[in-house]
Design a protein that fits this description.
The complex is a heterodimer of chains A (333) and B (271). Chain A is α/β, with parallel strands linked by helices. Chain A contains 11 helices and 13 strands. Chain A has a 6-stranded mixed beta sheet, sandwiched between helices. In chain A, strands 11-12-10-13 form a 4-stranded antiparallel beta sheet, with no helix packed on it. Chain A has a 3-stranded antiparallel beta sheet with strand order 2-1-4, with helices on one face. Chain A is globular, with a radius of gyration of 25 Å. Chain B has one domain. Chain B has helices at 2-22, 26-54, 62-87, 89-95, 98-102, 108-114, 119-136, 146-177, 181-195, 204-213, 221-228, 244-269. Classes of the chains: A alpha/beta (333), B mainly alpha (271).
């Protein structure tokens, strides 16, 4: 299958004007503005096939939004190349943006004071959507996102979750081939998140649309994406499957132990001993790297020395691994 | 042809949507339009009482002054219907909402022109212009025939274009400066205040600015002089009285080119 989206060695530098204080500073700024350069994206490459669903994650300021803006044609890259299908997004704006849909979780494109339907009608005219396609899409999305009760209400009366669903439909009415979601579940309650995730998943499977989305909620990724790209400080630090991330970084194991009575646990080499439940001193958590400590040895040692009621081995959650990647605590091997 | 129809259709939908948004609270809409009307009327009321004392200002009587003012308000009222998006453009750039326009498969300036219309300003100021016109048009000695009506319509169109061009230039400067509110106050609003009066009463420097830099003289003074021929008209070249539509077109074209160049720069340099 040919690559649909190709990103080669892309970088983006922002110039941030440095302001000096006081009147002399202001005059100096006018005559010779000083800029500070900030590299938002540094030599990032990846390719995506049609129909793939990609999760983009990274801490704030990692370059996710900048990447989405370059992919959607809003920003020119300073270096490298981006190609999507037959288009170069930032060069053929008017042609290209008719083929993509973009949802900004933080910024609504709906008319605040008007019923949701009025915004949809306006978008129909903007995107020149044929009447039957418009009607078909609208009916389908309204049903999938459970929106019947509120499409005729003014946007200002909607809950955040309802508004987000309406915004998602607004970005999809013209049947885009690629959809970018920038934090589509931010601030939405659990039930609302579930509806949005299911919708995204269903749409990807049924229509084979290519989707990229950024989020801070790992649940979003775990429930929807097979592939994950992690950015940190403008660089790509991981690109692969969700499971792969465990294999690559998830070498930490934890052993949760419950003793029959209160115990004073002696230190063990290479093992971190935590008290997960402060009110119950019979519980301990042993955290270690699987390459340093054999799990059998540790269990034997514990079983021989203490009176144990229950024992439970677990792998770390994806979220905690990713937090460690952000913090620079884990380096790929 | 098909494309044109489609563009007109979109413009129509945009207008319907903005009107619906601005007028959804009827009483509020009426009150706010009246508020604009009254706010702008205070200047007229000052003129009214001044002229009750002095009869004329540099040879212009009450009705003639009202006629001069009416062109200023009428052209603003029409202009703001199309340039509200550009008036608010700086805020859109700063908040990042401008990105949404870049994501739609339509011309950027077209979207900005039709995306919003400040109907309260249009009704308040345009309405005041119409009231002043009705109060004065019959009393200032203009013979309204085909010729003068065509002249008047072209003058209004030129005045709308001149002010639209200034709004477009100020909006475009936002791309470089991010904040041009004080510049707008300095250039547009200050000289608009001067424009309510016959400009020959001001210092030569102010007159030159109002002819060549912020060309408000062409919005109301020169067209009014063409129709009224008051003292002071002889101070200016006869050709100025005919140039309003030309000045409007040239200024708007220049503003448009500045916009095109700047928007290309904006996209390549980022925000």
């Amino acid at each position: 299958m040919p690559e649909f989206i190709e990103v080669k060695e892309v970088s983006k530098v922002f110039k941030i004007s440095k302001r000096s204080n006081g009147v002399p500073g202001m005059i100096a700024n006018l005559i010779m503005p000083k800029y500070e350069k900030r590299e938002a994206v540094r030599g990032v490459s990846f390719s995506i096939q049609q129909g793939e669903m990609i999760g983009f994650i990274g801490p704030n300021g990692a370059g996710k939004s900048t990447m989405i803006k370059m992919l959607s044609g809003i920003l020119f890259p300073d270096g490298g190349e981006i190609k999507v299908g037959k288009w170069i997004p930032y060069k053929q704006r008017k042609d290209y943006v008719g083929k993509i849909g973009v949802v900004f979780g933080q910024k609504s494109q709906l008319q605040w004071d008007l019923p949701v339907m009025d915004s949809f009608e306006l978008l129909r005219a903007i995107y020149r959507i044929p009447k039957d396609l418009y009607r078909r899409n609208l009916e389908r999305y309204i049903e999938m996102l459970l929106m019947e009760q509120f499409v005729h209400q003014p946007v200002r009366q909607l809950s955040l979750g309802q508004r987000m669903r309406a915004d998602i439909v607004a970005a999809l009415l013209h049947s885009p081939e690629i959809i970018f979601f920038d934090e589509p579940t931010i601030g939405v309650d659990v039930a609302g998140k579930e509806i949005i995730r299911n919708f995204i998943k269903d749409l990807n499977q049924q229509d084979n649309v290519t989707m990229l989305f950024t989020t801070h909620d790992m649940q979003d990724i775990e429930n929807t994406c097979k592939r994950l790209i992690i950015l940190d400080e403008g660089e790509k630090v991981y690109d692969g499957s969700l499971m792969g991330i465990r294999e690559k970084y998830g070498t930490t194991r934890q052993l949760d132990v419950e003793f029959n009575q209160e115990e004073v646990v002696k230190p063990i080499a290479n093992v971190e001993i935590l008290e997960p439940d402060e009110t119950d001193s019979r519980k301990r958590r042993f955290v270690f790297e699987s390459r340093n400590v054999q799990i059998n040895d540790l269990m034997n040692e514990l079983l021989s020395q203490y009176d144990i009621r229950d024992i439970n081995i677990s792998e770390p959650e994806i979220e905690s691994i990713i937090r460690k990647i952000y913090n620079g605590e884990v380096v790929s091997e | 042809m098909k494309i044109e129809n489609d563009t007109l259709f979109l413009a129509g939908i945009y207008m319907k949507t903005t009107m619906k948004a601005w007028f959804q609270y009827r009483i509020d809409a009426v009150l706010r339009s009246i508020a604009v009307f009254l706010r702008e009327s205070t200047g007229i009321i000052v003129i009214y009482f001044t002229l009750l004392q002095f009869d004329t200002l540099s040879g212009w009587n009450m009705s003639e002054m009202f006629f001069l003012f009416s062109l200023l308000f009428l052209t603003y009222g029409i202009m703001i219907l199309f340039f509200t998006g550009l008036r608010d453009f700086g805020g859109m750039v700063r908040s990042g909402n401008f990105d949404r326009f870049l994501l739609r498969p339509r011309g950027l300036l077209f979207q900005l022109i039709f995306v919003d219309a400040d109907w309260f300003a249009a009704i308040g100021q345009g309405g005041l212009g119409i009231v002043l016109f009705i109060l004065s048009a019959g009393k200032v000695g203009i013979e309204w025939n085909i010729e003068t009506i065509i002249y008047y319509v072209l003058a209004v169109a030129g005045g709308v274009l001149i002010q639209g061009a200034i709004f477009l230039i100020l909006a475009t400067l936002n791309i470089y400066l991010l904040q041009t509110d004080s510049l707008k106050e300095l250039t547009y609003h200050n000289f608009r205040k001067f424009a309510g009066y016959p400009i020959n009463i001001f210092h030569k420097a102010i007159q030159l600015i109002m002819i060549y830099v912020v060309p408000f003289a062409f919005v109301n003074y020169f067209p009014a002089q063409y129709l009224l021929r008051k003292p002071g008209a002889e101070e200016y070249s006869e050709i100025f009285f005919y140039l309003t539509p030309v000045v409007g077109s040239i200024w708007y074209l220049a503003a448009y080119l500045f916009w095109r160049i700047s928007i290309r720069w904006y996209k390549s340099s980022g925000n």
